[in-house]
Design a protein that fits this description.
Order of helices and strands: EEEHEHHHHHHHHH
Shape: rod-shaped
Largest sheet: 4 strands, antiparallel
Length: 209
């Protein structure tokens, strides 16, 4: 059985967006695509296409949209792979499109959970302890093995103690006038919420109070 063919009768640049092209099939508007798709699939006036090829055009356009959306998300701040995956799924992209987009991002080193963890620890490590940072990274979908490896490399006990001590000294100013027992309790809770270990908190409380 012969496949039914359709003719691309017109390709027209859209007025509101010069990067998008309106595709007309058999003299009727069919869909709009990015101009890159025109070149990639060699679309031109007079070209004959079947239903399978039309579906390929639409899927290729959808894949490009997903990639562009992922790049847009990453332009705001670094993201973990899970964060990108969740955003794409919330946008309504199918699993196949999402997986291909993630694979493309990994291939071009646009997402890398180990590098993401390093940057996250670098930005948060001056204020928070390892346990809080680990919990936050787990919530962002980074594997525990990666988190532990990076934490051990970037945030040892000595470094974490120095950070906690600095945070504690700053916070002490807010407790001026409070009784020692109240300061002890408040400061302990504060450091605990910031994710510092029991040993570090105990050491700092003994030192400052």
């Amino acid at each position: 059985m012969l496949k039914k063919e359709f003719e691309i009768t017109k390709l027209e640049t859209q007025k509101r967006n010069n990067n998008r092209i309106s595709v007309y099939i058999n003299n009727k508007y069919a869909f709009g695509v990015h101009k890159d798709i025109i070149y990639k699939l060699n679309l031109e006036k007079g070209k004959l296409v079947d239903q399978n090829f039309i579906e390929k055009i639409i899927k290729t356009e959808e894949q490009k949209k997903a990639k562009d959306y992922a790049i847009k998300i990453l332009s705001y701040r670094p993201r973990s792979q899970k964060e990108i995956k969740d955003k794409l799924e919330q946008k309504g992209y199918e699993n196949q499109v999402v997986n291909r987009t993630l694979a493309w991002l990994r291939e071009y080193k646009l997402i890398d959970d180990k590098e993401f963890a390093k940057e996250y620890i670098k930005s948060k490590g001056e204020k928070y302890g390892g346990s809080r940072i680990k919990i936050e990274l787990i919530r962002k979908g980074v594997e525990e093995e990666i988190i532990d490896s990076v934490l051990n490399d970037k945030l040892n006990d000595e470094k974490e103690y120095e950070i906690a001590l600095e945070q504690a000294k700053k916070k002490m100013k807010a407790y001026k006038g409070d009784e020692r027992e109240a300061v002890y309790r408040k400061l302990g809770y504060y450091l605990q919420r910031r994710g510092f270990s029991y040993d570090i908190i105990s050491k700092i409380l003994r030192e400052l109070l």
